[in-house]
Design brief:
There is one protein chain. This protein is an alpha/beta fold. The radius of gyration is 21 Å and the shape is elongated. α1 packs across α13 (about 330-345), α5 packs parallel to α6 and α5 (about 185-195) crosses α10. The protein has helices at about 20-35, 70-85, 95-100, 135-140, 185-195, 215-225, 240-245, 260-270, 280-285, 295-310, 310-315, 320-325, 330-345; strands at about 10-15, 40-45, 60, 90, 110-115, 130, 145-150, 175-180, 205-210, 230-235, 250, 275. GO terms for molecular function: glycosyltransferase activity.
């Protein structure tokens, strides 16, 4: 429920229209939730994303694939903002923050959200407030007015798989991973780790959901290791909650993360998680759920421990699951973001 007058909010998303990842999902979820609260919400981004932002959110296509110094991009952004006259200009990620720092009217409050740890966060220096999506990111920021607001996800309670929809035969232990099929997600190391499990993986099947440039190489790796019957690459799934509820274990194998949606959605669905030592899992999961490193043998070790006692792991992650239900929902994220908007607005 909205408190106070409706705000005009412009969310700036400057990714170039390729893969759909966590930052893009965050922006879509936040825009819909703020619009449902009664605010006038505009999203400026690449035209490839327009279908992801249905009414009542208003989408404005910008050529954000151009460089951040491109004069045409700056001109079009300024023109759109003059027409909107937003109370809040909220930049998602580094490039959007760079652009937002150079535009906006005198009465516009500029806020930036940092979605990952970078070697430098100077792109956010001109923001009035900065949001970090995890404690680790907040600790890395030097901005004097930074705030922690976790990513939030919405999980459909009616998203369970019927027996006829189940991916695998009854009795199979379902293990899943999800994300863009790019090197930063470490799926090649996860596949290698799976090949090292031996009898620990008996009766188990690993499914990796997602699309990306590494798909051909990952498929070839699976064939080369003779794992065609125990690892699947079904592609992108629009409703992963269905699969988290079917799974017994979720795996994060990334090099780095901000605060991964895989973690949030898994916990909201009651699916225990093991992970490489990245932001998000490091804050929420028990030590035995975190691998000692990012190499295949370290991932294999944490998988072996988890598969040997899945019920025990689920019990030890009960606190993290309760935290997710209380704090990692779209509603919680939107309410805290709106409160920050109102705190920083004059008057």
């Amino acid at each position: 429920m909205m408190s106070g007058r409706p705000l005009t909010i412009a969310l700036l998303l400057a990714t170039p229209g390729g893969a759909w990842g966590g930052m893009e999902q965050h922006t879509a979820d936040l825009s819909r939730a703020l619009a449902a609260m009664g605010h006038r919400v505009h999203v400026l981004g690449h035209r490839a994303y327009e279908a992801r932002f249905p009414a009542p959110v208003r989408f404005h296509a910008l050529p954000v694939q151009l460089g951040r110094h491109n004069p045409l991009l700056h001109f079009l952004l300024r023109r759109n903002l003059r027409q909107m006259a937003p109370d809040i200009l909220h930049a998602q990620g580094n490039k959007a923050a760079r652009l937002a720092g150079k535009v906006g009217g005198p009465n516009t409050v500029r806020i930036g959200t940092v979605h990952g740890i970078k070697s430098s966060h100077t792109a956010f220096d001109r923001m009035d407030r900065v949001i970090a999506v995890s404690p680790a990111i907040k600790r890395a920021l030097t901005h004097p007015r930074s705030h922690l607001i976790y990513n939030g996800a919405r999980v459909d309670e009616d998203s369970r798989l019927s027996p006829s929809e189940a991916d695998l035969s009854p009795g199979t232990i379902h293990v899943i991973a999800a994300g863009r099929l790019e090197s930063v997600k470490g799926f090649d190391r996860l596949i290698h780790a799976w090949s090292l499990l031996g009898p620990a993986a008996d009766g188990c099947h690993l499914t990796i959901y997602g699309e990306g440039s590494q798909r051909p190489a990952l498929a070839q790796q699976i064939r080369g290791l003779g794992l065609d019957n125990t690892i699947s690459l079904p592609g992108y799934s629009p409703c992963l909650a269905r699969h988290y509820r079917q799974a017994r274990l979720s795996v994060i194998s990334s090099d780095r993360e901000g605060f991964p949606y895989v973690l949030i959605e898994s916990l909201l669905c009651g699916c225990p998680v093991v992970s490489t030592p990245v932001s998000g899992p490091m804050e929420l999961l028990p030590p035995e759920a975190i691998s000692e490193g990012h190499e295949p043998d370290a991932i294999a070790s944490v998988l072996t421990r988890a598969l040997a006692n899945l019920e025990g792991l689920a019990e030890r992650e009960a606190t993290a699951m309760a935290f997710a239900r209380a704090n990692l929902t779209v509603e919680a994220m939107a309410a805290k973001t709106e409160a920050l908007y109102r705190e920083v607005l004059p008057g």
